[in-house]
Specification:
With 468 residues, the chain is mainly alpha-helical. The chain is 60% helix and 1% strand. The termini are far apart.
């Protein structure tokens, strides 16, 4: 009964979460009802008496009518089962306020029996859901994945005790979900687990099974025995593709992609990285035509968790652990480079003059590294000849692999790389060359072959969306 002293239009704050397990929900309903005087004191006394009556009847049934007392551990188990069953029904009402009304107008035994009926119905529905999932189960050679769905959860339905252990989860569940706070208990947990499992499988079904398998194999040499979530693997690499401007349906992430993302995200703040991840997730959902569905909500919940891992991976230079390369694949995917906004001409000119005025190369390099340069700004400075010829080698050695690949992409005939190295043919292009081009090629020529080949391969993959 609502306290008559409260103004009619006042909203009473309730601290009861629908995320609580059913046993705790029942206890919190009574606790909050007492705290806010929503359950009269005489009703609270009746509830205490009715709980004892329910327990006594349950003990009699449990012992086959021979005794109304049981060992302490058994009594606590049966009490939790009664709380779970009653809370299971109350939790599915339209609001906690309705639960307060029913606690006052119905006996606890009536609410308990309604809970038992609802559990029996949901037990059959959940068992049917398991059968449906098993029929469409992908052939992923991951032990925890297969054992949980084929053996572990079926054990739950064989051993579930709705009378005296409704809150318990018999069986074995080893396969981890992407979003599983593991708060729920009993049938409620199994229902939630299978629904989420079904959503995860639905997402993975958008990708060819052989592509998902290649990703699984590439994630860990011992993948069969490892405890990991397949959905998380697929989501991470799909998000990485979207971050690079590719189709979210592409799961292949090369080591070049990993290094490029490190370059792109390394200078971003945490808020910027999280915003980019959210935007990539939005593009992914639009491309998969799942906007507004339960699957989109589930993906967004997983991305919220993934954003923290992404920031940590960028911060610790460990993106390959988050975005693994697929096994047995060798795709030449384009890496789309979008340049930063260019510096204001006056600011760039001031930087140019400051570099020219430096007496020491080290000071020039510090200015260059600390300036928020776009690649267009960098090439403009190089074209402006503010470095001397004997300074270029040190300048180029200060650049990272991505920056070197981008510079290589800007050279004449960069698509025909062999013609650029130590060949007379380059003289035919001399009029197109800038002062820094030949020292740059000489610098690349001086690298170890494996390093030079990697930069060339990186450059081949790059597609620049703006003219540098």
């Amino acid at each position: 009964m609502i306290n008559r002293n409260e103004p009619a239009d006042r909203k009473i704050p309730l601290h009861i979460s629908q995320k609580l397990d059913a046993s705790t929900y029942f206890q919190e309903i009574i606790k909050e009802g007492a705290r806010l005087s929503l359950i009269p004191s005489e009703t609270l006394e009746k509830l205490q008496s009715q709980i004892l009556t329910l327990l006594s009847a349950a003990f009699n049934r449990y012992t086959g009518g021979f005794s109304s007392s049981v060992p302490l551990e058994t009594g606590q188990r049966i009490q939790q089962s009664i709380f779970f069953t009653t809370g299971y029904y109350l939790k599915r009402l339209s609001s906690p306020e309705e639960a307060f009304i029913l606690l006052e107008t119905c006996t606890l035994d009536e609410l308990y029996q309604k809970g038992k009926k609802r559990i029996a119905e949901d037990f059959l529905n959940t068992k049917a859901l398991l059968a449906s999932i098993q029929k469409k189960l992908p052939s992923f050679d991951v032990l925890a994945y297969n054992d949980t769905l084929k053996e572990g959860i079926p054990l739950f339905f064989a051993a579930y005790d709705a009378d005296y252990g409704a809150h318990e989860i018999p069986g074995s569940i080893d396969y981890p979900l992407s979003n599983d706070p593991m708060i729920l208990t009993g049938l409620e947990y199994i229902m939630d687990y299978l629904r989420k499992f079904q959503l995860e499988n639905l997402f993975c079904s958008y990708y060819p099974s052989e592509t998902v398998l290649a990703l699984i194999r590439g994630s860990d040499p011992m993948y069969r025995e490892q405890l990991f979530n397949i959905f998380d693997l697929v989501l991470a690499n799909s998000l990485a593709s979207a971050l690079m401007g590719r189709s979210a349906l592409n799961l292949y992430i090369s080591d070049y992609d990993q290094r490029f993302l490190q370059y792109e995200l390394g200078s971003q703040s945490r808020d910027q990285i999280e915003l980019l991840a959210d935007q990539a997730g939005c593009r992914m959902c639009v491309e998969l035509s799942i906007a507004g569905t339960n699957l989109e909500h589930y993906i967004r919940a997983s991305i919220r968790k993934l954003k923290g891992r992404l920031w940590h991976a960028v911060h610790t230079d460990s993106l390959p652990l988050l975005f693994p390369s697929s096994k047995d694949e060798d795709e030449l995917n384009t890496i789309l480079f979008r340049d930063k906004d260019h510096m204001d001409h006056a600011v760039l000119r001031a930087l140019y003059n400051e570099i020219l005025s430096c007496r020491h190369l080290s000071d020039k390099l510090i200015l260059l590294r600390n300036a928020p340069l776009s690649m267009r700004d960098l090439t403009d400075l190089l074209d402006s000849e503010c470095f001397f010829e004997d300074e270029y080698a040190s300048l180029f050695s200060s650049l990272n692999e991505v920056e070197l690949a981008l510079l290589l992409k800007t050279l004449p005939h960069s698509a025909d790389l062999p013609s650029l190295y130590g060949r007379a043919a380059i003289r035919d292009e001399y009029e197109k060359l800038r002062q820094w081009h030949l020292p740059f090629l000489s610098y690349l020529d001086g690298l170890e072959l494996k390093d030079r080949n990697r930069i060339e391969a990186f450059s081949e993959r790059l597609e620049i969306s703006q003219v540098l």
